[in-house]
Amino acid sequence: MPVLGALSVALEVPSLAEGITFYTDAGLQAADDGKVARLRCPGQDRDSIILIGGAARKRLHHISLRAEKLDEIAGLAAGAGGKVVDAPEGFEDNGLWIEDPHGMLIHLMEQAADPELEATVPFEVNGPGRVTRKRRSAMLPGASYPGARPLRLGHVLVFSPDVPASVAFMTGALGMGLADHAQDIIAFCCARKDSDHHVVAFAKSPGTGFHHASFQVGDPDEVGRGGRALLAKAGKGDWGFGRHTIGSNFFHYIQDPWGSWFEYYSDMDHIDDYALWTPTNYAMDDSLANWGPDVPGDFVHNYEVGEEFV
Questions:
Q1: What letters, b where the CB count within 10 A reaches 16 and e where it falls short, cover 197-218?
Q2: Which end of the chain is flanked by fewer CB atoms within 10 Å, N or C?
Q3: Do 35 and 13 contact (CB within 8 A), yes or no?
Q4: What are phi and psi of 183, to 5 degrees?
């Protein structure tokens, strides 16, 4: 099981200031040197989002994944249609840098797993014949709640001109598993042990690019509160509150300054052993949501290969 989880995503962006404002409004903590901004979840000692300033337009630079057996991956990459490459300018030559068959850059690193997240208060739901919450209100006054606190980067969704080919590379060279898919339009890849339903996902587009990074928060209420609060600050598009069929997670997406998306999520399906999981090919009606508001018209538009986002 070479790939173990998601680490970070790096983007080239026109404005570091806009990016720092957006991601700190979302609850991440920033450090920057005027050229590169590094954003982390509170309490973590590693980056989740890296922004490289000075680009003419937003562009995916690379994704980083935690992995093992890097020599094995290096040997498999070429046979699966990819290639091993040198570290890009400005980044350390540590771990393994590869390109997938479509030129998407992936940085694989061997490093210890993040510390286990502290258990939160269970999200209790009273239902017919099952009353678990008694003699207390589920909700405090709205002003009692702090801002959303992203706990970790759970997954990244990127665009691909050939989703099945991208999945074949991730499963054949990087040792991941296909969790589920919807025809050849969208697919979700997981690690083979103790994995969120998906770590890397692909959506069909004329070219590669970045769609969204998804951050776990404490419970569905925090998804909803965080999404509304970030939308009020960002002032652009959003999609949510809702729940996915594929992965089962509650979601709220907010559009970043360049037309891609930031997702808060909670209650993701967990695949403890991929050998005991059966992938499903879903109909397109279930490819995006089980329930929620109407999908924005540009939710799956890849601005990196089309017109600029304004």
A1: bbbbbbbbbeebbbbbbbbbbb
A2: C
A3: no
A4: 55, -135
What's the burial of 146, exposed, middle or buried (CB within 10 Å: 0-12/13-18/19+)?
A: exposed
For the chain, the residue count is: 310
Written as six digits, the tokens of 106 are: 């992936």
As a whole number of angstroms, the distance between CA 297 and CA 59 comes to: 21
Element (H, E) at 198: none
Provide the 10 A C-beta neighbour count for residue 172. Answer: 15
Q: Give 10-residue mean pLDDT values along the chain (310 residues).
A: 94 98 98 96 96 97 97 94 95 95 98 91 92 93 94 98 98 98 98 97 98 98 98 95 98 98 98 98 96 97 87
Question: Rounded to whole angstroms, what are the CA distances from 268 to 74, 196, 283, 302?
Answer: 31, 6, 20, 25
d(CA 199, CA 33): 29
CA angle 184, 187, 193 (to 5 degrees): 145
Single-letter residue type at 77: A
The residue whose two tokens read 């991208």 is: 166
Reported pTM: 0.97
Which helix (H) or strand (E) segment holds residue 263: the answer is strand 261-266
Residues 246, 279: Cα–Cα separation, whole Å = 10
